[in-house]
Amino acid sequence: MVVGLGTGSTAKHAVDRIAELLRQGKLKDIVGVPTSTKTYDQARSLGIPLSDLDSHPVVDLAIDGADEVDAALNLVKGRGGSLLREKMVESVSKKFIVIVDESKLVKHVGGSGLAMPVEVIPFCWNHSLKRLVNLFAYAGCVGELRKCAENGKPSVTDNGNYVIDLYFERDIGDLDEASDAILRLPGIVEHGMFIGLASSVIVASVSGITIKTK
Ligand code: DER
Fold first, then answer.
1. What Å distances lie between residue 140 and 1, 20, 169, CA to CA?
2. What family does the database annotate (predicted)?
3. Up-side HSE of residue 183: CA atoms within 13 Å toward CB?
4. How confident is the model at residue 214 (pLDDT cuts 50, 70, 90)?
5. pTM value?
6. Complex ipTM value
7. How far is the CA of 12 from the centre of ligand 1 (A)?
C-alpha cells in the first residue's frame, strides 16, 4: 500500500503510529510518500520505507491534519507551510483521511479568522499579495507575508517559495470560483483550500471520536 504521510503536529502522531505498527509486525508492505521534508526526516528516522510521486503516481491512502474543516469537508491547510506537496500527494490519493480536533471545525472556509495560506514565487511577492487582497476585497481580506519568528526573514517553503497568509472578515463564497481566481494570477503557485479532496474526517473531542464522511 502507498501511504501519503501528512505534515503537522497531528499527522506526526499518525506517522509515529504507522512506524510502531510496522515495528510490531501488525502492518506490512507499505511505502510512505511524505508531504514535506520535515515528515520525510521523521519517517526516515522511524524506519518507514519511503518513496515519492515519481515512483508512485497514485497513492492508496493519505492521512493528514487540517487547519479548518467546513460542513462539506472542504479544508484549509498549509499553516505549517507544506500545502503544495500536501496537495500534490492528497490530490492523487484514492482515499484521504483527515485527522483533526473539534477546534478545526468551521462554518465556512476562512471562518476561523486564521490564515488561508497561498504559496507564491518570491519574485515581486508584494505585487502578488496586493493582487490577492484585491481579489477578495469583497470579503474584507487582508494579507501578510509569512516570516520566520527567529529572524523576521520571509519564511521559505520546501520548494523555495514564499507564503502569503490571507485573512477574511466575511465568507468568500463559492470556493471553486475563489480557487480558479487565485490560480489565474501569475506568480501564484498554490493555495491552501483543499476542495472536495477529503474522503472522511476523524474529529477528536472531549466526548470522543466522530467520523464525518461525505
Ligand atoms: O500545514 C498543514 O497543512 C498541516 O497539516 C495543518 O493543516 C494541520 O497542522 P496541525 O495538525 O499541527 O494543526
1. 44, 46, 5
2. Belongs to the ribose 5-phosphate isomerase family.
3. 11
4. confident
5. 0.97
6. 0.97
7. 10
